Amino acid sequence: MKDWAGVGEAYSASYAALCAGTLPAMQRALGAPHGRSLLDVGAGDGRLAAAWADAGWRVQACEPEASMRAVAHRDRPQVDMIDAGLPDLPFPDGAVDVVVANFVLNHVDSPRRSAAELRRVSRGAVVATIWTLSPSWLWADVAERAGVAPLVGVKLPADEDFERTPDGFARMLRDAGLERPVVAERRWTWNADPNRLWRSVEGGVADAGALYTALASDERRRFRAAFEAVADERGVDGFLPLEHRAAVAVNLLP
């Protein structure tokens, strides 16, 4: 799956704001904290863990990538962040009231095993999200304009993969032992700062960053020019409005 090593700073400056777009839907699904505990798995730069804590939850967070944890420790020292990640979490069964994994199950090698692990450590709800329309469509357009071959991501084996739709996500979660996942699709527009978005590319974040890193110098110049052309064409008041969709799953105890 994707290599996130060393991208913490670039991710925090760019896509972390996009990934926070699911927070309102997750908060509505879970309601008021009422003193409950919450574990944020794959917490990245700690942005959402801090938001959950500010809303009144008793929060723990875990993240396996050192550069992400470094950003979290620096910018959000109030977040209790440890070095851990799926598919094996260092928590006992039923350790917390709620487990949240925001855009994590779409990046692991074994989604069903990982989802089962989320279920194991929660004595209450499990909330998880995946992309149904990710930023990859933008970078495919940029690559085509630049005349470079788009990066073909590594696919999971057929017995591990699942359909990236709300229904497909729900089926995968049921396969993993989550009893009654309710999945809804959230749509929103992210008004991206083009300069920050380009920083994600130069910082090696996600498929676009991996593609750019592998390009020759002339290809990089064409890719940058193509991105600037797209930003000029689509930009509104200095921002790049980009439509995104995510499946938000909530599984409550029966």
Automatic annotation (TrEMBL):
It comes from the Bacteria. One of its GO terms (biological process) is methylation. The keyword Methyltransferase applies. Residues 39-123 form the Methyltransferase type domain. It comes from Microbacterium algeriense. Keywords: Methyltransferase, Transferase. GO terms for molecular function: methyltransferase activity. InterPro entries: Methyltransf_11 (IPR013216), SAM-dependent_MTases_sf (IPR029063). Signal peptide: none annotated. The keyword Flavoprotein does not apply. This is Class I SAM-dependent methyltransferase. It holds the Pfam family Methyltransf_11.
